[in-house]
Amino acid sequence: MMAYGSPHTSVRGHEGQGKVMELMYEMEMAAEDILTDKQQIIDLDRKRQKTREAIRVLSKDHKSDKHWVCVGNMFLKLPAARTKTVLNEDFNKLDGEINSLRTNLKQKVNKLRDLEMKEDIKGFNLTPLSKSDLQHIDNYF
Amino acid sequence: MASKKQSQEQVIAGFQELRQQQRQIVGKVSDIEMDMKEHELVIETLKEVDENRRCFRLVGGVLVERTVKDVLPALVNNKEQMGKVVENLNKSLEQKGLEINKYRETHNLKIKGEESKEPEKQGHGQDTSKAGGVLVAKNS
Amino acid sequence: MSQQIDISQLPISQLNALAQQFGEEIEFFSNSLNQLKLAQNKYVESQESLNKVSPQSKDKEILVPLTSSMYVPGQLSDVDSVLIDIGTGYYVDMSVDNAKDYFKRRIDFLTKQMEKIQPILQEKYKMKQITTEILQLKIQQQMQAQGVAPKT
Amino acid sequence: MASSKAQQQLPVDLELKKAFQELQSKMIATQQQLKISDAQIETLKRAIQRNVLVEKEIERLPENTRVYEGVGRMFMLAQIPEVKNTLEMKNKAAESKIKNIEGTKVYLERNMKESEDSLRELIISKQGRG
Amino acid sequence: MMDSELQKKLSSELEKYQSLQKEHQKYVKARQVLDGQLSENKLVKEELDRLEVAANVYRMIGPVLVKQEVTEAKENVQKRIDYISGEVTRHEGLIKDVDKKQDAMKEALQKLQSQYQQMQQKAAKS
Amino acid sequence: MASSESLVTENASKTYSGIPKAEFLEDVDSYMASAEETAESALKKLDEQHNKYKFMEYNLNTKKNRLKSQIPDIKKSLDIISHLQAKKSSSEAMETRFLLSDQVFARARVPPTDKVCLWLGANVMLEYNIDDAEALLRKNQEAATKSLKQVEEELSYITEQTTTLEVNMARVYNWDVKKRRHNEQSSKSS
């Protein structure tokens, strides 16, 4: 995983190209990782909100003593009290997952920032390929 | 010229038909091989458990309740049958390959872009199958 | 077919692009057609499975699908009504007959959708065929003009 | 090549050309329809064959074997004769479907032939005039 | 070099045009999604309209099926339909805007391109 | 035309779980000189290699999707098992609405049980004690998760190789543009 380079460094010799590419790759991976985590947090949060909504609705409903609760592909008829426990458990579990993701996310963001800082000092810009291609052609014209 | 052109197209169509058949056989073989692997895993699992345990087998939409000792031999047999089918398919695959080569020789066909390198590597026939135009009939 | 006249005036490159475009459109429409067909098959299956939810089946011993890979023995406890997922998070208790009607409606709906697509697809096939024909003719003409036509 | 050039230089009989084109697209459509019909028949026949095999398999089972019929995702306990009955009913339904499709096939083929004949007549009548 | 200025302009304009295209795609995709949601909700509404007032309707909230009055369910779905319809119209407006911008840019781009070509031809001759 | 080593298989020994590594083209000039390649033929080779990675990517994506649907199913099964465990010594039957077929839920009574049946594959279903079933499912869950992770890593490795190839293609292309430009200029000045 060593030999990488960006097209416009080619004219200036190839010292350190591999490093740059490696860094770029690392950064991309880190950024992607962050994005997936963020998406997951959003999904989990939506689920959490729904669970909260369910808890609220059921706490207002005193008519029915049993509820249909979805477990996998099916519904189980559970007593109101058990439903409440299940929902609360779900809620807490989701809460825990979201929180641990958030904590990790902070670290990941910091790491990415570190990587980007290095880039800044060296003065390499992260332009997309198409753009650099154009510049490259420009140079020759 | 019209008739000549027609026959060229027919030659190419015939060739593509053969390639299609080849691909179909390859596909079938890999399907059956996957199925065999699945059988292997299940057989291993069943060998480990009590032979009187309840075990069901699905036969064309009908689920039959039996025990492990009834199902296991049926599975082993099934797998053997599949092995034979694969063997036969591999034979016909070989034949198909020969047939294709012969067809290519007799009609003097070349795959475009193949002039400079060895024949197509196996398992990557994909790009040659796309539309017409990839094949060039040489008749000059 | 007024377009035909236009088509025959186009240069080879544009004809090529046009043929390709028709090809893509054909793919798109056949894809949607396939998807509709798949969805319809599911409805048909559901409709058929409702046929077995009948008074004779009351309390019958069944293997209950808990998930797609896990079953457990049980009994069918209600053969008069089923719960139907009508979409967007809504579920309705329906008598078995009403449920069958529901699926019939859905199947008919999809049939209509497919009947709308079919002629479009047919037309696209035709257009593609015409374009390819003209394209081939033009290529032949060009080859003749360049004197590279194979000997007859 | 001579023929294609000649065709182009002659004033094309528009009526004939149109009839040709119509026949051609009809032919393509019919052939597609026939192909679909053949494929449907093929699947149905295979289903029948499979059902026959299943029936044989079930007949070999000890009499008191518990068998379940697949209904959607669920399996419902059934008697062996019951299952056989269902299979036979399915086969009958499939056979009548095959008959239906074969009927449409005959219709399609006849229709096709009629179109061909009428085009032939058109050509003859034109030649007579020319 | 003379044409390098022009070249730069051309490429930057091209880039703008491409980003417009991307925007266009984004909106079209969003509208497709909305269209799908709209038709699904309409089908649901149709089904709800068929029901008797006493029918058992549930809404899935989180993992629980919560019973809902038929009238309330109908109102809810209608509200959703109204909202999505509004979104569809809004997206159509957005798409039209981008279309207009694209058309305008197309002309400018073509001019630039022909200018550039002329320039190149001149350079080749000299 | 002399046949030469492919641009990317020069170092075929470097692989990642059987996926060949695409070497970065450090020095286009010397490569093009030594390999006696025209830009066109070099690009074609790169493109072929690119297609091969795409093919592998497609296969891996199929695998990934299969695992991605398998994992939640196992999770669901485990969720339900925990309910069955809680219920197995009760006297009351469990009331359920199960998915009979697409969009249809039917009602069933499930008497307390300590047995479930699991599909093993190859059209075989085996009866398990709840605890054994749970153990098996957990094992499968772990294996599937691990496998998914590996597939994802392989996919990102392929993306990496594809990027390298794309950069290589761009470099060869640019090299060619530069050369043409140069030739034009030298012919002009002569």
From TrEMBL, chain A:
Subcellular location: Cytoplasm
Keyword annotations: Chaperone, Cytoplasm
Annotated coiled-coil segments of the chain: none
Gene3D superfamilies the record matches: 1.10.287.370
CC per GO annotation: cytoplasm
The keyword Cytoplasm is annotated on this UniProt entry: yes
Alphabetized InterPro entries for the sequence: PDRG1 (IPR030482), Prefoldin (IPR009053)
Origin superkingdom: Eukaryota
Protein name in the entry: P53 and DNA damage-regulated protein 1
Organism: Dreissena polymorpha (Zebra mussel)
Organism classification: Eukaryota, Metazoa, Spiralia, Lophotrochozoa, Mollusca
TrEMBL record, chain B:
Region (Disordered) location: 108-140
Matching SUPFAM superfamilies: Prefoldin
GO biological process terms, semicolon-separated: protein folding
One GO cellular component term noted in the UniProt record for this chain: prefoldin complex
Keywords, in A-Z order: Chaperone
InterPro entries linked: PFD2 (IPR027235), PFD_beta-like (IPR002777), Prefoldin (IPR009053)
Signal peptide: none
Extent of Basic and acidic residues compositional bias: 108-124
Family matches, as Gene3D superfamilies: 1.10.287.370
One Pfam family in the UniProt entry: Prefoldin_2
Transmembrane feature ranges: none
Gene Ontology MF: a single term: unfolded protein binding
Domain of life of the source: Eukaryota
Entry function: Binds specifically to cytosolic chaperonin (c-CPN) and transfers target proteins to it. Binds to nascent polypeptide chain and promotes folding in an environment in which there are many competing pathways for nonnative proteins.
Family: Belongs to the prefoldin subunit beta family.
Protein's name according to its UniProt entry: Prefoldin subunit 2
Species this protein is from: Dreissena polymorpha
From TrEMBL, chain C:
GO cellular component: cytoplasm; prefoldin complex
Pfam entry (one): Prefoldin
Protein name as it appears in the record: Prefoldin subunit 5
Gene Ontology MF terms: unfolded protein binding
UniProt record similarity statement: Belongs to the prefoldin subunit alpha family.
Keywords: Chaperone
Any one of the GO BP annotations: RNA polymerase I assembly
Domain of life: Eukaryota
UniProtKB/TrEMBL annotation, chain D:
InterPro entries according to UniProt: PFD_beta-like, Prefoldin
Recorded GO MF terms: protein folding chaperone; unfolded protein binding
Superkingdom of the source species: Eukaryota
SUPFAM superfamilies: Prefoldin (SSF46579)
Keyword check for Isomerase: no
GO cellular-component term (any): prefoldin complex
Coiled-coil segments: 84-111
Keyword Coiled coil: yes
Record keywords, A-Z: Chaperone, Coiled coil
Protein family membership: Belongs to the prefoldin subunit beta family.
Quaternary structure, from the entry: Heterohexamer of two PFD-alpha type and four PFD-beta type subunits.
Stored PANTHER family: PREFOLDIN SUBUNIT 1, PREFOLDIN SUBUNIT 1-RELATED
Name used for this protein in its record: Prefoldin subunit 1
